[in-house]
Specification:
6 helices, DNA-binding, 5-stranded mixed β-sheet, 24% helix, 12 strands, alpha+beta, 2 domains, N-terminal domain of MutM-like DNA repair proteins, 5-stranded antiparallel β-sheet, single chain, 259 residues, Helicase, Ruva Protein, domain 3
Amino acid sequence: MPELPEVEAYRSLAEGAIGRLIDDAVATDVRFVRGRADPHVLCDTLVGAKFVAARRHGKLLVLDVEGGAHLGVRFGMTGRLVLDGTVGVDRLVYSSDRIEPAWDRFVVSFDDGGQLIVRDPRLLGGVELDPDEAALGPDALMLTPAQLRAALASSVAVKARLMDQRRLAGVGNLIADEVLWRAGLAPERRAGSLSPAELRRLHRHLRATLDDLVARGGSHTGDLMPERRLDGHCPRDGALLIRTRIGGRTSWWCPRHQH
DNA sequence: ATTGTGGCCTGCCCGC
DNA sequence: TGCGGGCAGGCCACAA
């Protein structure tokens, strides 16, 4: 599902929309428009303007609009970005590869005939005018060791804390499992109980894993991913993986080397 | 303030 | 062959 690597790919794709005159914007399903702004106001803000930048903050894509407005795009777990017919990410776990016109929830048309489309079979994603970026923690890809330590100052399970977008932004369920597996830390560990050495290890693995998965092209390309299933075994030591529920999410981890 | 829980949304897969 | 139930998880509203 779209975690940081997918949204980074979407951001890169969206750079191709910068500087082009927008002559139409349509929210085909009003439920896809989030936040306080009226759908018509949001669309009217775009028409006649241009995007001037494509940024990413965690899993939030922000398209800066000429004149000072910001268009926030969230992808939920099944959302795709399409620019001029090019899909941002080839394969999306848990989503469908079929093409249904009804799944095009938000369509921006340019005067050159091209289109920027947010496609989402389910409506878990959405677009929002001037999203509250301050509510998001520091981006996981730029996180310093001190910021990680601050984000984990809690008695909550370390995995739940890693996925809390207000503490650090960009880590979802699959990447949280992958990072903790690589770092050898049990997801159930209290976040605040990590020793300085463990914090350092986790920080290194977080950065390395994100770089790795961005390069490989998706959050589902982790080494643990193929074994996140019934009867799955640890790719490192062969132990039978444990399945538990942490922070409301299914978690797979190795009881032999994750402590 | 912090933390936990349930609901939203719907394609897909499994068992009957 | 069709059908219904359960599952997937990002995000938000709400409760304690």
